[in-house]
Amino acid sequence: MTAKSQVKWTDDARTALRAGEGFRLADLDPESTPGYAGDKKDGAVDLAAGLAQLADLQERLFAASHAGPGRDAVLLVLQAMDSAGKGGIVRHVVGGVDPQGVELAAFKAPTEEERAHDFLWRIEQRVPRPGYIGVFDRSHYEDVLIGRVRELAPPEEIERRYSAIVDFERRLVEGGTRIVKVMLHISYDEQGGRLMERLDRADKHWKYNPGDVDERALWPAYQEAYQTVIERTSTDVAPWHVVPANRKWYARLAVQALLLETLEDIDPRWPAADFDVEAEKARLRATIR
Amino acid sequence: MTAKSQVKWTDDARTALRAGEGFRLADLDPESTPGYAGDKKDGAVDLAAGLAQLADLQERLFAASHAGPGRDAVLLVLQAMDSAGKGGIVRHVVGGVDPQGVELAAFKAPTEEERAHDFLWRIEQRVPRPGYIGVFDRSHYEDVLIGRVRELAPPEEIERRYSAIVDFERRLVEGGTRIVKVMLHISYDEQGGRLMERLDRADKHWKYNPGDVDERALWPAYQEAYQTVIERTSTDVAPWHVVPANRKWYARLAVQALLLETLEDIDPRWPAADFDVEAEKARLRATIR
């Protein structure tokens, strides 16, 4: 019995969550659980089962490129409004994988040096090597999200970036990287509640920033910017997946499912030995008392 | 009831495992479990309890430096003969911590560029920032271990390096980094069995390298080199801990205990808000429908 047969998915997560032709962010209910027929309790069981499966697939991916000819890598791109749960995804989904096989990059506001280069310069430096699962906590998409909403660049530069992103991602995919783009989608009300919780608890104050309320005031503009990002950059080789995230348990399960399906597609195999196994056994045996 | 009160430690791990004055590696039994009165089953319970504790302390460490004045960091240095279990420590001990708070560096044979610099050049680049737990899988100690055994540098250069390491580590400690140096200590026979297992299982072949047997042939020279490393670089501010590692469950538990004790020493606190909490609540409330 595989983990797959136990889970309450009614559809592939990649199918259920893909932002295809005609997708309207405004029409997606952040409370919904597309493709999944279970409740929170089922979700906990399935998440635990998936962790073991993900750990196994990751180790194969790593082995295939470290001792074999494999060139495959996976890049998970996480984008979301504040408090939507990116950190929880990293902790509870990515955290179940051997840290030796993960390359995590958290992109903050660019430094002076980074701003002096093209916006993709700092991104290129952090793409995962073959065999690794890369995770971008925020990404090059900030440059067409906050970049657009806060007018950090002129409109023609923002326009240029959509095409540059499409080309850049196609190049990564051609090199063997599977890109899993995820927007965690919470509602305006849910964000209000989560930010208030940070203010209510002394052990959460450090996660709060007065700038969070300023950004929140621009909510409609950000939703528009996400809609445009999806329209302009959801391609066949690197589609967007929009994950309803008001229910944290569902968002974590869904991102795990997206990763599992991607790794199952790669189907990484243990590489064959590039040495003579019997000869090595004999050499080793000679050293054993 | 704290996790501490449940565990079967009879002594602080740092006391039980410290390689102090007069320490003789050859006298330490790799099968032993210093400071711990439990068996494998107890060890599993205590490891699980420790994971939650470690995760909590790590989050506080991170918070204290990200939103407060904290300058503390932790650096775990892992050294060992092949197959001693460094990978398992990273997976099962470090892997229980939020990946967002960990900086892992695996040092392989130096590149041409790295060899052109002083041996500490590449090390300096990977020391953890404040708030992070850094993990070195191999380290600058390779330069006085394989460097000495394989005569990759002249004896006077190896001599110079011991003092350079002591100075370097003192500087890190003065900057706020607690260094936890761990040698995982397995027996020659145990290594033979573990390498043979890699050859016996097709899914482990990728972990085997014919060079492993060549290194194994130099076992006595490596043991001597470790003894010298400990004598020359086990200082008050950055002592060595030698962890008997024939029993994997003990080694993992012991390294976890070393990290827990180090973090408890730091005792990181949630930082106070650097904004007016009530004023922010009012601003946020005004945005909530």
Automatic annotation (TrEMBL), chains A, B:
InterPro entries: P-loop_NTPase, Polyphosphate_phosphotransfera, PPK2-rel_1, PPK2-related. Pfam families: PPK2 (PF03976). Residues 52-267 form the Polyphosphate kinase-2-related domain. Keywords: Kinase, Transferase. This is Polyphosphate kinase-2-related domain-containing protein. It comes from Microbacterium gilvum.
